[in-house]
Automatic annotation (TrEMBL), chains A, B, C, D:
Organism expressing this protein natively: Acetobacter musti
A Pfam family it matches: Lyase_1
Signal sequence range: none
Descriptive protein name: Adenylosuccinate lyase
Entries under SUPFAM superfamilies matching the protein: L-aspartase-like
Amino acid sequence: MVPRYTRPAMMAIWAPENRYRIWFEIEALACEAMAELGEVPSEAAKNVRKRGNAAIASFSQADLDRIDEIEAETRHDVIAFLTWLAEKIGPDSRFVHLGLTSSDVLDTCLAVQLTQATDLLLTDIKSVLEALRKQAFEHKYTLTIGRSHGIHAEPTSFGLKMAGHYAEFERNHMRLLTARAEIATCAISGAVGTFAHLDPRIESYVAAKLGLRPEPVSTQVIPRDRHAAYFCTLAVIASGIERLATEVRHLQRSEVREAEEFFHAGQKGSSAMPHKRNPVLSENLTGLARLIRSCAIPALENVALWHERDISHSSVERNICPDATTALDFALMRLAGMMDKLVVYPGQMIANIESLGGVVHSGEVLLALTRAGVLREDAYRIVQRCAMATWTQLGKPEGRTFRENLDADPEIAGKIGSEVLDAAMDSRLHLRAVDDRYRMIFGETNLTA
Amino acid sequence: MVPRYTRPAMMAIWAPENRYRIWFEIEALACEAMAELGEVPSEAAKNVRKRGNAAIASFSQADLDRIDEIEAETRHDVIAFLTWLAEKIGPDSRFVHLGLTSSDVLDTCLAVQLTQATDLLLTDIKSVLEALRKQAFEHKYTLTIGRSHGIHAEPTSFGLKMAGHYAEFERNHMRLLTARAEIATCAISGAVGTFAHLDPRIESYVAAKLGLRPEPVSTQVIPRDRHAAYFCTLAVIASGIERLATEVRHLQRSEVREAEEFFHAGQKGSSAMPHKRNPVLSENLTGLARLIRSCAIPALENVALWHERDISHSSVERNICPDATTALDFALMRLAGMMDKLVVYPGQMIANIESLGGVVHSGEVLLALTRAGVLREDAYRIVQRCAMATWTQLGKPEGRTFRENLDADPEIAGKIGSEVLDAAMDSRLHLRAVDDRYRMIFGETNLTA
Amino acid sequence: MVPRYTRPAMMAIWAPENRYRIWFEIEALACEAMAELGEVPSEAAKNVRKRGNAAIASFSQADLDRIDEIEAETRHDVIAFLTWLAEKIGPDSRFVHLGLTSSDVLDTCLAVQLTQATDLLLTDIKSVLEALRKQAFEHKYTLTIGRSHGIHAEPTSFGLKMAGHYAEFERNHMRLLTARAEIATCAISGAVGTFAHLDPRIESYVAAKLGLRPEPVSTQVIPRDRHAAYFCTLAVIASGIERLATEVRHLQRSEVREAEEFFHAGQKGSSAMPHKRNPVLSENLTGLARLIRSCAIPALENVALWHERDISHSSVERNICPDATTALDFALMRLAGMMDKLVVYPGQMIANIESLGGVVHSGEVLLALTRAGVLREDAYRIVQRCAMATWTQLGKPEGRTFRENLDADPEIAGKIGSEVLDAAMDSRLHLRAVDDRYRMIFGETNLTA
Amino acid sequence: MVPRYTRPAMMAIWAPENRYRIWFEIEALACEAMAELGEVPSEAAKNVRKRGNAAIASFSQADLDRIDEIEAETRHDVIAFLTWLAEKIGPDSRFVHLGLTSSDVLDTCLAVQLTQATDLLLTDIKSVLEALRKQAFEHKYTLTIGRSHGIHAEPTSFGLKMAGHYAEFERNHMRLLTARAEIATCAISGAVGTFAHLDPRIESYVAAKLGLRPEPVSTQVIPRDRHAAYFCTLAVIASGIERLATEVRHLQRSEVREAEEFFHAGQKGSSAMPHKRNPVLSENLTGLARLIRSCAIPALENVALWHERDISHSSVERNICPDATTALDFALMRLAGMMDKLVVYPGQMIANIESLGGVVHSGEVLLALTRAGVLREDAYRIVQRCAMATWTQLGKPEGRTFRENLDADPEIAGKIGSEVLDAAMDSRLHLRAVDDRYRMIFGETNLTA
């Protein structure tokens, strides 16, 4: 991921230093487990741990360079690391990596890195939820027009709109927890995963210490259906980001102006057009969603490795693991900040509700007429006639409001009273279920938040 | 593809009758070529042609049933067809399919069907181009606001907007011609494509008669990079449909109302809300674009068949070949009709240009100030100040237009005259390149169209 | 989905009859709930239920034709159905669909259809698991070569190979249960989901009766992140099918011949080459996996509907809902049958293990040498030398086995005894963890199965 | 793209230095064009060119830091660059960027970078073609078994196999030329592309100098269907790489061993198993193909920008433009090297042809019998019987070859003579069309190459 979309905490997870730290941890734990099983001298295991810890604690650019230097020779990353480690540990290093394959270290390390990345993402979603919750409660009863097909339908509450996205991100949080469990497994099973040279208890020990579960059947590699499910989950979350970003882009349109991304003092929307204030954050999120989503397909194609394993997944994962998690981390935090600072214009929302001369109440008027005994087909014809007339005359001097057209309609006269029409055209009608839904989403205790 | 999105002409191309007609044609042509080469008695070839033609000409449901019946036994579609054909032709049928493999027939037939489908699609694009050209010329100088980021930028011409889409569909037409050439090849090369049992001149003969080129190396199958390129082209065209559909959806938004899909007398936008007129055609096109686009990935995954061939591509193509071409045919014709009948509201376009109090001219005012010697940084600050003030006061009783704010600005006073501001705020400025671009797109002779 | 890949049970779920049955059920339940709330006369609700049930029970082609006829007029599927229903129910039909939108019916019906489809798929996976379990236990200790990169690595058990796929399909079963919960929600919330004209208790009632949960915030539509997650799950399962299909394709290769799809008496592998027996089922599964996987992207693109809803998702779902579930149902059952009848050749597996002259034991020999005190680097060099020599001489008259090369190597002489080499080259070493892993996968009680 | 898969020449194209070099070139050319049109003092334009050239020629890390410093303030990359440039040029800098928008610079620069990248890729494909051509001619008549479904079919030539891939990469070369033309356009059209503040002749001038064509309708951005078509082409090429890589992976399988990636002296295939030589290059290429292919979908999703432009495509392109071209450059050159050094084992190819006891000649035997007057159905039954018997007895002491089974078959006796069977089982039969096809692919003059 380009630096522009990279936050330091996520970068650190995918940095070589962290990888080497985890590699050492896996090797040290395996060594300890072997010592407990009597396969390695206890003193040697302690020495590996002590000297290795010290080497990792003082890890510097010089160590990175040294490892790169060895890798340039051996063309094998794990062997390069082990050689460097041996230089630090001394003779006891011969008890390191005993019977393990490189994949044991690589795949278990990837599991640790992905769980670390996921923990960060889970926190990010919490930030999004906080921002959405804030807006949901601030605008619990803020009337706004609901739109289907981009066309004004009936009024709703802006808070409910936010609550709907909140509910989606709650689902995303739950999905990500499930996805985390998918990839949190450990493999210390040796060549083609038969434990021919390794006691399975070593794997159990390492797994427990790393907060992972042993992989039931690793065949030198952890099966890639797990990673496919993980990246699909990121794709779903990214699509949820896109939905909310699209909403904000719509709300900020010049003709709508119901909400706006925060615009910093001194910010320039365009070098050529000084009047511009653009929803650039939400547009950026739309693009990032496309990027994250695109990682699902290669992750799915990685599943069908040949026989016990091939290495075709490796080049894919070297890219999509850091890229997708980094982009999602950035996107979620950008979204959280954007929604937290979103500038909302309730007055413009009311103005927009009213901008079509009241036709948005056509549904309730239709029901009122049918309740008054008019046949549904007739009622529809009458109300549509009045609504279309209103629509056509919008903005014209001679234009009449929907109510005026209804009042003047001969077929309505005498059917329903003025107070019925008043009630039918009261936007507050559309807020009646807000409390009920907030209870469902935020729980009882949160209603006063 | 579900019947809802299927037009008869495309359905006919993918119908079993057409497939059997083409299969027979391939077999008959191969037989004729063998007769010319002296490998088959001339009389036999003539008989095959004559009786086969008659059988195909009188092809009925009974024939379909008979072929299905045989296939239920043999589990092989080509063998079932050949058996049926033998029943029609009699003893000379032993000169049919001599040395051919099923794939020779299947892949060459697919090439013919795809070229037929493509010819239909090319005609469809012509219809789209016609509709776009009509709107482009009707609204060549119709002013409308140009929008970047969904925010009013500067005026442009609605015709130019249409011309831009016209240019894209011209590109799509060209791409589809290229894609047609990609898949218009013929393979009559036998098992694993070695011509061990077939003279290559048979392939040349059949290819020429069918309007195809011989495939240089078919390995029992025509290589699938051709089909991948073809489906990618459909995906690009579908995305162009989505771009135009998205434009219409935006233009029809309740707050924009600059254009609208034609709404039939008696049409109902919503059963519950009589006032609704929704851009359902363009929304439908957006969904169809997603469907068509999704066929690109499996087509690309089909390329890496194992060795000389495997059959994994078959189940994919049985679906995506009819589905993607059928959906695209439907979508293009729906688009053509929609654009042809699009209701355009030039008055609302002007109203929208003016709705932001004139700030859309900030760019030209900025240039005017710099031309008058004001430092660009200062000019930007001044113009942004006036624009933001206008923006903030929009719709308020005390609100001032951009021009009023400029006129009242002490830093502008004396710098530029009133007539300079008049010129800077004249939307017609933005029409100056329309002629130039129309020449580039439609050619000289079309300027008066 | 083309008929070729459609099983009757899944076809029935997506047939119009089932859709109308569910539509009626939703309407009848909503009517009953309104009756309980006193909004509709109790007798009317009973009448709707009684006459409606009768109409659905006797539903025939004539009814289908009648509905199609009405839809051709009204261009609205739900209105067409309601009109037909009114004809069957009579005057009480005015209490049907009161305050509901079409989307309430459509989205809730889709939830029911998808849960029905998913229940079928869950059963299908059980069949796959049964077949895999059978092979796993039949071949628990059947030695076969483990392959990494397509190259012989070390022996493993064919049963463990099967157990690994069993574990993956257990995960797929669990994922599908989660996906089922994702889409099993109900929306009876009216225009833009505000319950303005509907008591939320109606939704709760309908949901409970249909085995669904109420959707917290439906905005006329059920949010599409649910469906995106669902289709991504199908894509993961499809990829698991592809992995197993790829394994079988490899095993059946002419050069490997360790297992084979069942070949029926009388079956023809090729019309031109009578000797052929091709793994056509597993190749077909590979293609179907591509198809199913391709549905994930449009489902993800469907998430970002505009505002409260647009209808772009509809054309996508009309295709991918039946297509992906139908293809997956077919693929799973084909896989189950294929694995159940898979012909396994343990003798050929042994022959293949031995075909490289024993070099597959190089890893254990390496360990034996290091255990005997040889430096790892030296040991590697020695063993690699012997292995490469063996490899090069394979099939040559003067060729020596790996063991012969080791025995003749001067650097090994005296380092390790013959019995150590015997042990190192005993394939049974690689079966030592099989019991442990079977316990983990199949549980204690299943070990004797 | 991670450094591991990045070659220096491609990295240089996407480096900031190159971007700034191109940005300056665009600005300098636009300034020159304005000077020619009399809109800018001629001396000023010369000064801009002279001082700018010098600044670019001496561009160093300090300049990069300075630009980053300004961007940190202004949050706008083009403004940061222009400010830096102004510091270098002095007062005449006010004639730079006159009437241009940032997009004019950005999109035209992207066109230049993509053409540079494409030129590199075209050269890479030439290297692949060279390697394939070499193998094709070296093994023009090298017999090898053709495989359909992974099962031995009939013999073919290894050279023809290579020639087939050569033909595919010729097509890829042609496609990439077309794709290059797609994206080689220039936009200097100002806000929303109306040329309100810019003479179209400026665009023509800049385009000509940069080797680009003017974009007919740029709407501040160059339309993204061009880039979508471009990335789809990369996806098709990547899939072709995967096909060839898959072939090599198959050929190197332990059971096949017909060809092998070059294995360096001293190379280690596995740290744990000294005998391993793995096709890691072709597996790596398989993964890279997945990565490159995955860029097609977001590029297609980028097409439907809103109205005249939004900025959602930007974050996508910042990643996929360098990533996809870099990965493809690396993959093509890796492929070229791999194919050039591919170790081919003709002896093993013959051994494999013979390994099934001669059944691979069943097709020609079948034809021979039918030519001798046996009914096709009978001939098939007889030949299949002999082939299956051979197959079943493979490797068994009592096993008979296909020929022996044919000779012993009572239904064959007397039907065809021994010399007919000799001819039918001569693999050289399958080389008869090689010359013909080589002429078609490589041309007449190349036949002796």
